[in-house]
Structures are given as structure tokens and as C-alpha cells.
């Protein structure tokens, strides 16, 4: 948990010490590639930490069902956080208008993304964070 918290704090620090109302694209939500299993996924805690700070998350994962992502992020203590979460079916939609991209799962398809196309549609300055290792 310490590493996940530290990673989230690094994202916040790089985004000028606040993520409130900033859109962050989360690419990958499963605990590892080639599965839809989210048990023990680092993405869950990273997302929860960012939500605590008021970030708007747009999440893409090729195998995890949308409802599973919402279930994993639902919190009895913070029910309003659900309004800050969008789950999309495209990594390009996830990054459109985003301040940052956060890679949380090492999907092979992410190596084939058109990063220039993504960058062109992001808000500037745009940031990329790799939390896969």
C-alpha cells in the first residue's frame, strides 16, 4: 500500500500539487495483463487515492467489465466519488481532454497506441505516469 500511495502522491505532485477537477486517464485496471481479474489490483488503491484528492478518472481496461470497476471503487464513506468516475471502451476516449495518463496494467495493446494522437487531444502540459512495475 505504501508504494501505491507514494505513486499517487507523485502524480499529484507533478500536477502542481493538486488533481482536484483534473481529468486523469487510467489505462489498465486488472491486476495483470490478459485477465479481467481485479483482485489485489494496484489500480484500485491508486484510483481511490486520486479520488480522495478530487480527480476525475476516465478508466479503460480491455477485459475488466465496467460494473466490476465501479464495484471496486465504490466506497460507503465517499459515495459522491462515483460521479468522478467514467469507464470507457477506448484508450483514446479515456485520454481525450485529460491532464495525465496513468498506466496501471501492462497490456500488450498499449505498446501499439498512437501516442501522438493521444497527446494532441490532451490538455497541456500533459503528463504520463507508468505504474506497471
TrEMBL record:
It comes from the Eukaryota. GO terms for cellular component: nucleus. Transmembrane segments: none annotated. It holds the Pfam family UDPG_MGDP_dh_C. It catalyses: UDP-alpha-D-glucose + 2 NAD(+) + H2O = UDP-alpha-D-glucuronate + 2 NADH + 3 H(+). Residues 25-133 form the UDP-glucose/GDP-mannose dehydrogenase C-terminal domain. GO terms for molecular function: NAD binding; UDP-glucose 6-dehydrogenase activity. GO terms for biological process: glycosaminoglycan biosynthetic process. This is UDP-glucose/GDP-mannose dehydrogenase C-terminal domain-containing protein. The lineage of its organism: Eukaryota, Metazoa, Ecdysozoa, Arthropoda, Chelicerata.
